[in-house]
Amino acid sequence: MAAGDEVVALYDRAGTVVGSAPRAVMRAEGHWHASGVVLVRSGDGESVYVHLRAPDKDVYPGTWDCWAGGVVAAGEDPAQCARRELAEELGIDGVEPVPLFTLVYEDGSIRCHNFAYEVRWDGPITHQPEEIVDGRWLHLDELREWVDDPESPFIPDGREGIREWFRRYGN
Predict the structure, then answer these.
(1) How confident is the model at residue 3, as a pLDDT?
(2) Cα 123 from chain centre
């Protein structure tokens, strides 16, 4: 099945599942949807793994992100999505994501409930080459500077998500 044919859960503005549609329809018609996103922190909590999105992604191609994640599939809950995407995108398995918060993001036709999670991880990271072209660890201070720079090539919803994380949990 092509990525555009993948059936995803549709949500309403309040965050309730209201149906499903092919991903391409959700994107084309700007439906509310949800994503499970995971912040990967080093075991000591001082660094975050950031990655460069592939240049052919359907939204925000070629931008950096600190959240591994993706769209919640029809019949899937956000926690299942977060675990699946973490394993697919970064090869991280065997660790349970801890729920953080839900960020409601709206930017034109992109309207999403980002269910945010966190893991601590010092093991190997294996990029899914169709999704990620580069990655590295950044100290929290460097990440804060990067997302506070409006000129940095950082994904917009990820920028809002990590700013919310800093407000809630950052030093």
Answers:
(1) 59
(2) 20
